[in-house]
Amino acid sequence: MAELTEELSLVKGEEPAVPAKAGTNGKADTAGKGGKADPKPAVTGGKSPLDVPTGTPTVIVDDLHIVYRVYGAATDAEKGNAVNALTRILKRQGRPQMKEVHAVKGVSFVAYHGDAIGIVGRNGSGKSTLLRAIAGLLPPHAGAVYTDGQPSLLGVNAALMRDLTGERNIVLGCYAMGMTPSEVREKFQEIVDFSGIDEFVQLPMSTYSSGMGARLRFAISSAKTHDVLLIDEALATGDREFRKKSEKRIRQIREEAGTVFLVAHDLRVIEETCNRVIWLHKGKIKMDGDPKEVLAAYNKG
Amino acid sequence: MSQPESAVADAQAGGRSGQEPLAKLAARYGLRRAMARPRFTVYVRQLWERRHFILTYATSRNVSKYSNSALGQLWQVLTPLLNAAIYYVMFGIILGGKGDIANYPAFLLTGMFVFTYTQRTVTAGAKSISGNLSLIRALHFPRASLPLAYTIQELQQLAISMGVLLVIVVATGEFPTWFWLMIPVVLLLQTMFNIGAGLIIARLGSSMRDLNQLLPFITRTWLYASGVFFSIQEKVVGSAELPQWVADVMYYANPAASYIEVMRDILITKSDHVPPQSVWISCVFWAVFTLGFGFWYFWRAEERYGRG
Question: Which PROSITE patterns match (chain A) (predicted)?
Answer without folding.
Answer: ABC_TRANSPORTER_2 (PS50893)
